[in-house]
């Protein structure tokens, strides 16, 4: 069969199984996975507790409409609320969908409380997902090319630039939506001062603050949620990717104020909050939401960043990151070549921009795998360097 999905390049590797941060192909070759299904497999592959939790629920029932109460769904919502600013939780299936719900919530808030304000300000270089509104929210031209007409009501501001945000905010602004670290946009990290100012500018202008933590949430940055490190309190937070332990699951967490916007009938979903996904999510929360686990993420992620910084290459411009979101910026557009070479040598990397590598490994990755990954990366850089210099 030809490549059945022509929106993704064909790949001839066939994986057989995975354990921790290591995938094995059908020929027995191992790959260290620094991508984790794009920041999804937080506990790595084949965590036995996660499998057991999902299996237990699967034997009871796989799906149950949200018309009826499900114990796992309720418990996961309670866990998210108890450990964040939240007061209400709305489950859906993907990051894009969660952001759509957040946008709907902000628009209704504008109608109820700000004379019909509807504009959502998002950031240049952001990424919010692939549905039409989420793509319109995404502040990157390359995603808008064939989207004409875009979904209206989105405006972009410069990331980490408070004066640009102040210029763009108006009486029409209902919300600002921001990633606490831009991941797909090239691993960009805002200053703490900016995030604090952002919060106060939103409050002053009666604008809801939405944090898109689809990628940064759930321990990725060494905090349960990335906003916590900045000492800010958002009104709405979206979660996704790893939330269901690999099962499709996402959520919108709303503050008490934001939770009052919706009433019965304002949200709906057939598959959202699937009980098996929520069972896996509960197991995952139990593992991640521990001081010792988060301390492990902090220490092993700085170990990884150090290792990468020690790779000396005239082609590397900068290594930057927060926890286990690490970006390597090159001086030339060698990202695709580095990624391809690394894959051949058993290292899975990701290249969101031609000059940038994004690294988002399972949070449980062990030091020995980090060592192996850094060794392979160093060899790859040497090969590429010989070609480019
Ligand atoms: C991946 C991602 C999304 C989209 O999630 P999907 O599950 O692919 O819809 C949205 N926002 C951020 C920050 C992401 O990293």
Describe this structure in words.
The chain has 389 residues and is α/β, with parallel strands linked by helices. The protein has helices at residues 36-39, 48-60, 71-82, 95-113, 132-137, 162-168, 192-204, 226-230, 256-259, 275-288, 291-309, 335-344, 367-388; strands at 15-19, 22-25, 30-33, 88-92, 119-123, 154-157, 173-178, 208-212, 236-239, 250-254, 316-322, 325-330, 347-348, 350-353, 356-359. It has a seven-stranded mixed beta sheet, sandwiched between helices. α12 (335-344) crosses α13 (367-388). It is globular. The protein starts with 14 loop residues before the first strand and ends with a helix.
In short:
The chain has 389 residues and is an alpha/beta fold. It contains 13 helices and 15 strands. It is globular, with a radius of gyration of 21 Å.
Principal-axis shape equals: globular
Name the beta content range. 15-25%
The average pLDDT is 97
Low-confidence parts, pLDDT < 50 over ≥5 residues? Answer: none
> What's the number of extended β-strand segments?
15
Strand count, sense and barrel status of the largest sheet are:
7 strands, mixed
Content-based structural category: alpha/beta
End-to-end Cα distance, whole Å, is 40 Å
Helices and strands, in order, run as EEEHHHEHEHEHEHEHEEHHHEEHEEEH
Gyration radius, in Å:
21 Å
Bound molecules: pyridoxal-5'-phosphate
Q: How many separate helices?
A: 13
Looking across the biggest beta sheet, what order are the strands in? 4-10-9-8-7-5-6
Fraction in helix: 25-40%
């Amino acid at each position: 069969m030809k490549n059945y999905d022509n929106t993704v390049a064909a790949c001839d590797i066939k994986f057989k199984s995975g354990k921790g941060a290591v995938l094995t192909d059908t020929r027995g070759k191992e790959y260290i996975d620094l991508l984790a299904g794009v920041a999804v497999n937080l506990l790595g592959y084949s965590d036995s507790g996660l499998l057991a939790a999902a299996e237990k629920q699967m034997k009871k029932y796989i799906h149950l409409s949200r018309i009826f109460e499900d114990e796992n769904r309720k418990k996961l919502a309670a866990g998210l609320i108890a450990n964040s600013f939240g007061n209400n939780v709305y489950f859906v299936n993907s990051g894009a969908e969660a952001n759509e719900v957040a946008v709907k919530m902000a628009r209704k808030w504008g109608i109820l409380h700000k004379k019909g304000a509807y504009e959502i300000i998002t950031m240049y270089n952001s990424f919010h997902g692939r549905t039409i509104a989420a793509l319109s929210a995404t502040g990157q031209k390359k995603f808008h090319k064939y989207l004409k007409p875009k979904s209206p009501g989105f405006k972009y501001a410069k990331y980490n630039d408070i004066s640009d945000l102040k210029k763009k905010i108006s009486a029409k602004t209902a919300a600002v939506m921001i990633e606490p670290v831009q991941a797909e946009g090239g691993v960009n990290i805002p200053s703490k001062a900016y995030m604090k100012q952002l919060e106060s500018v939103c409050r002053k202008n009666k604008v809801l603050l939405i944090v898109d933590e689809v990628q940064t949430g759930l321990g990725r940055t060494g905090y349960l949620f990335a906003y916590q490190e900045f000492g800010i309190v958002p009104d709405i937070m979206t979660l996704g990717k790893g939330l269901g332990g690999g099962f499709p699951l996402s959520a919108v967490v709303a503050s008490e104020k934001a939770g009052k916007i919706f009433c019965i009938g304002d949200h709906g979903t057939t598959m959202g909050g699937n009980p098996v996904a929520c069972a896996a999510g509960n197991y995952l929360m139990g593992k991640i939401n521990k001081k010792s686990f988060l301390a492990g993420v902090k220490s092993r992620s700085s170990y990884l960043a150090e290792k990468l910084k020690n790779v000396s290459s005239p082609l590397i411009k900068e290594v930057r990151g927060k926890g286990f979101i690490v970006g390597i910026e090159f001086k030339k557009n060698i990202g695709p070549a580095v990624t391809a070479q690394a894959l051949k040598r058993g290292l899975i990397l990701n290249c969101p921009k031609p000059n940038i590598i994004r690294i988002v490994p399972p949070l449980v990755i062990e030091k020995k795998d980090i060592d192996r990954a850094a060794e392979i990366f160093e060899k790859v850089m040497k090969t590429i360097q010989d070609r480019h210099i």
